[in-house]
Amino acid sequence: MIAGITIYELFTVTSILFFIGVYGFITRKNLISVLISVELILNASVINFVVINKYLYPDILQGVLFSIFIIAVAAAETALAVSIIINLYRQINSVEVKDIETMKY
Amino acid sequence: MERIVFYILALIIIIFAFASVTSRKMLRSVIYLLFVLSGIAGVYFLIDFNFLAAIQLTIYAGGIIVLIIFSVLLVHHIEMRLEIAKTTRKITTGIACLLGLGVFLFTIYSHKFNVVENSLTTNVDEIGTLLLSYKAGGFILPFEVISVLLLAAMIGAIIIAKGNRLSENKAQTK
After folding, report:
1. Which of its termini does chain B have fewer beta carbons within 10 Å around, N or C?
2. Of A39, A79, A3, nearest to B40 (Cα)?
3. Contact A35, A78 (CB under 8 A)
4. How far apart are CA B24 and CA B20, in angstroms?
5. Does A40 contact B72 at a Cβ distance shorter than 8 Å?
6. What is the mean pLDDT of residues A73-88?
7. Which residues of chain A does B6 touch, with a Cβ-Cβ cutoff of 8 Å?
């Protein structure tokens, strides 16, 4: 654990990071910006897993392993999202949320 | 000393995260995200999980950022400015997020965590042993599921991004 830092301060930082991600997810109009906001939200949850593991249950490693799995899922999700965005740009020449009207072209 | 480093890292994370969701230039927004992810890796180093910090730096800061930059450069002009949301929508979303943050912080600060004072360090071999152990508390099944998921995502990404140009061309030549 970090000397002199309580668990409350770490949770404050991760909560702020999570809500910045939610704010970006709602206000941005571009698919890539939405993807960036999702990355922020996922990272906040990963820090929470690690902090709870280290501060409350230091003798087991479950939180670290779960955060490794979350990072792997996030990598897979980003790769798929980027490929979908590029395919959409080829079909309709735009990546704005408002231009995407149908699920099947 | 650690306090000061942590406060600097927290400040970097929050300021750059906010800049990343409000910047109107796409490429700058991605670079701000890179700073946020590096700051998070610094938090992992401080909390003494070196392996996780290395994973964060290689996968996020090395892989995902490059992927997003590639997609930005393939899709946008660099100088293009993004459309921004209406001011009323921004304000309502900001108020809703602040309310949610208030609820979160109230719940966190009113709960008493029984923190265990410790200075244990974890080695990579402990993580590897637990990841491949099939005894109680082992993680062999999710490990295998994740590997299948990564393979499926890789094939799916190739098929989706390839589009139907190639097959159309083949059909035309036939």
Report:
1. C
2. A39
3. yes
4. 9
5. no
6. 90
7. 2, 5, 9
ipTM beyond 0.85? yes
pLDDT exceeds cutoff 90 at B151: yes
Say yes or no for a CB contact (<8 Å) between A30 and B26.
Answer: yes
**A3-59: per-residue pLDDT in tens?**
778 889 999 999 999 999 999 999 988 888 999 999 999 999 999 999 999 888 888
Burial A57-90 (b: 16+ CB within 10 A, else e): ebeebebbbbbbbebbebbbbbbbbbbbbbbbbe
Structure tokens at B10: 């927290």
Domains along chain A with CATH numbers: 7-97 (1.10.287.3510)
Residue B9: enclosing H or E segment and its boundaries? helix B2-22
Q: Which CATH architecture has domain B1-122?
A: Up-down Bundle (1.20)
| Domain edges within chain B | 1-122, 123-174
